[in-house]
Specification:
By secondary structure, the protein is an alpha/beta fold. It has eleven helices and twelve strands. Helix content is 43%, strand content 18%. The strands form three sheets. Strands 6-11-10-9-8-7 form a six-stranded parallel sheet. A four-stranded antiparallel sheet has the order 3-5-1-12, with helices on one face.
């Protein structure tokens, strides 16, 4: 399947690519234009410099293709593959000026998305053996949500709401404006489509009781201490066994094992996207000698 047919290659992602390319090369690459012959062909290896989970190969291909349709990217691994330092991730071949102009934008995307995938895989591994979903949140980089959520899936995680229309999540500010959890749930049930699950965020046991009494179909335990999570899960299972239990807020790696064992259904983690460290990838370019078949063509 062509990268341009990939599910994540949405109009929003296309606009994002346009902005990124305009930002970095909108007025041209004056260095390459003055140093590199226009007809020079080149090929480049994208190499991992640390342990990471690869993500963003399709975005890199789209970036180089935007600069010149003659560029070709040959992947050596796939999105989702864990690699070690020195691993050849992909080889790109095409006009040298296009490769140099697209290098920074392609690597910026890949380093960030691979960082999200790598961090996600670390959290998922910490919950291994438990029947729990590790999900992201809406705490994403503005404009990058579709790609960051794709990276979470690549890392073995799951996606929470894609946007405000994707689900009902009654939070403290909603309750403050309508007076009570019960009233907020009543209004949601009366006004929203029946296909949307009604979830209520709670910050204490008393709020949990109120949400269960109101008929919430899912509860989000917000910033609960680890010692209280088990009691909250027990209370839900006894009173409303079909109600989903999610925990979020202050979820760190050192808490994952205990939280995963507590019986919650979902652990949502904002840091998967808002705090993922960009990983180290580099691109090494070499000229293509006339008549020599490049690595990207073999």
């Amino acid at each position: 399947m062509s990268v341009f047919q990939a599910p994540w290659y949405t109009p929003a992602v296309q606009r994002l690519l346009d902005l990124a390319l305009e930002e970095d090369a909108g007025r041209g690459d004056v260095t390459s234009a003055s140093v590199i012959d226009e007809g020079q062909e080149a090929e480049a290896d994208i190499i991992a410099r640390e342990r990471l989970v690869v993500c963003g190969l399709g975005i890199a291909e789209a970036v180089f293709t935007r600069f010149d349709w003659r560029t070709r990217l040959r992947t050596r691994v796939a999105d989702g593959d864990p690699v070690t330092p020195g691993t050849l991730v992909a080889t790109v071949r095409g006009p040298a000026q296009a490769l140099l102009a697209g290098e920074r934008v392609a690597l910026n995307f890949m380093q960030h998305l691979s960082g999200v995938a790598t961090l996600t895989q670390t959290f998922v591994a910490a919950a291994e053996g438990a029947k729990v979903r590790v999900t992201d949140t809406r705490k994403t980089t503005p404009g990058l949500r579709a790609l960051e959520k794709y990276a979470v899936r690549v890392g073995g995680g799951h996606n929470h709401r894609a946007d405000l229309s994707s689900g009902i999540l009654i939070k403290d500010n909603h309750v403050a404006l309508v007076g009570s959890v019960r009233e907020a749930v009543r209004r949601a049930r009366a006004n929203a489509t029946h296909s949307l699950r009604i979830e209520v965020e709670v910050e204490s046991m008393s709020e949990l009781d109120e949400a269960l009494e109101a008929g919430a179909e899912a509860v989000l335990l917000d910033n609960f201490a680890t010692r209280d999570v088990g009691e909250a899960v027990k209370r839900v299972r006894e009173r409303a066994p079909r109600t989903l239990v999610e925990i979020s807020g202050g979820v760190t790696l050192d808490r994952m094992h205990e939280l995963a064992k507590s019986g919650v259904d979902i652990i949502s983690i904002g840091s998967l996207t808002h705090s993922a460290r960009a990983v180290d990838l580099s691109m090494e370019v070499r000229p293509v000698v006339a008549g020599r078949m490049g690595a990207a063509e073999r």
